[in-house]
């Protein structure tokens, strides 16, 4: 490259693989960048630190505080072309600005989970199908909701009660809708009260053309 290149390193398999390949081929010492959080259950910067130490990168780390996040909110829409519901938007933008102080281009590991089925929700499809097949309908309808109400609530990242509630929210839901329901930060019944009535039907059909196209085999004349 004609400009300095770095790597965004989270410590996961995808970004760690990119960093390792970069170390093998990049002339000079690779600069890696990661972001951490004040809340321990959300903070994965320790993994990135271990990978950076193992690979020998010049590692740079930034901690996202609530104060930093609040300062970014008023201006963050200036960087978006359209409404963008990405829960990692603030840390991603902050990390990009942090890396830009030293490099002009960064490589990242985005897309690995999509390409190689890395999301745990893909395993959850089997679990919910097993649950619906084994547990009697009467138990699912009466006992399960009561047990959910008794689950202690935790505010930790991907806590046990969160996983159980999110898993059971997919019961009786078609596979496609279930997948989006699990991956999203908010479920439809949580989003709809926040939206104008006219926009809800549009959002429900957002992915329909893509699904129909994926199932079809089009033949077109040039």
Note down, in words, how this protein is organized.
With 222 residues, the chain is of the alpha/beta class. It folds into 2 domains: 5-115, 3-Layer(aba) Sandwich (Rossmann fold), CATH 3.40.50; 120-215, no CATH class. It is 52% helix and 9% strand. It has helices at residues 13-25, 45-55, 66-76, 89-100, 112-115, 120-134, 137-150, 160-168, 175-183, 188-191, 200-204, 208-215; strands spanning 5-8, 31-37, 58-64, 105-107. Strands 3-2-1-4 form a 4-stranded parallel β-sheet, with helices on both faces. Helix 2 links the parallel strand 2 and strand 3. It is globular, with a radius of gyration of 21 Å. The model has no long low-confidence stretch (mean pLDDT 85).
**N/C terminus separation:** 38 Å
Indicate the proportion of strand residues: 5-15%
Name the average pLDDT. 85
Per CATH, which architecture of the largest domain? 3-Layer(aba) Sandwich
Helix content: 40-55%
List the helices and strands and how they pair.
Elements (H helix, E strand, L loop, with lengths): L4 E4 L4 H13 L5 E7 L7 H11 L2 E7 L1 H11 L12 H12 L4 E3 L4 H4 L4 H15 L2 H14 L9 H9 L6 H9 L4 H4 L8 H5 L3 H8 L7
Parallel strand pairs: 1-2, 1-4, 2-3
